[in-house]
């Protein structure tokens, strides 16, 4: 759901600004950073990738939950964050659709 929310945000930004090439590349770079376990990073970066930019939740929490390394509180937190991010991305999408103007040429 977090990946879907990120892509919806990028699509909404594409409608609002008509420039999304660099935005999706930043997203791909962040997901490639989260390809490795977040435990190898130091604490400020680990917290940023987990809670500010929830790429750590998207990439790391499913594997930790599969190996029973994640507490139930963090499993619940990941669902809450993913639903909130999906809700906010849909609201941004609706806002972008209201601002959309089709100018045919």
List the SSEs and their pairings.
Blueprint: H1 2-17, H2 21-33, H3 43-52, H4 55-59, H5 61-66, H6 72-99
Characterise the protein shown here.
By secondary structure, this protein is mainly α. The chain has one domain. It starts with a helix and ends in a 6-residue tail after the last helix.
User: Total number of β-strand segments?
Assistant: 0
Calculate the terminal CA-CA distance, rounded to whole Å.
36 Å
| Total number of distinct structural domains | 1
Output the structural class.
mainly alpha
Strand content: under 5%
Main sheet properties: none
- Element order, helices and strands? HHHHHH
Using only C-alpha atoms, the radius of gyration works out to: 16 Å
Helical amount:
over 70%
Question: Brief overview, please?
Answer:
With 105 residues, the protein is mainly alpha-helical. The chain has six helices and no strands. The mean pLDDT is 88.
Key words describing this protein structure:
105 residues; mainly alpha; 6 helices; 0% strand; elongated
């Amino acid at each position: 759901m977090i990946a879907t929310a990120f892509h919806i945000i990028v699509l909404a930004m594409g409608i609002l600004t008509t420039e999304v090439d660099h935005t999706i590349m930043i997203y791909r770079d962040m997901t490639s950073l989260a390809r490795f376990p977040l435990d190898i990073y130091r604490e400020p970066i680990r917290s940023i990738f987990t809670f500010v930019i929830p790429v750590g939740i998207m990439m790391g929490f499913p594997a930790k939950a599969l190996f029973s390394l994640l507490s139930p509180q963090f499993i619940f937190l990941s669902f809450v964050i993913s639903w909130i991010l999906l809700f906010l991305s849909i609201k941004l999408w609706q806002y972008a659709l209201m601002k959309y103007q089709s100018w045919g040429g």
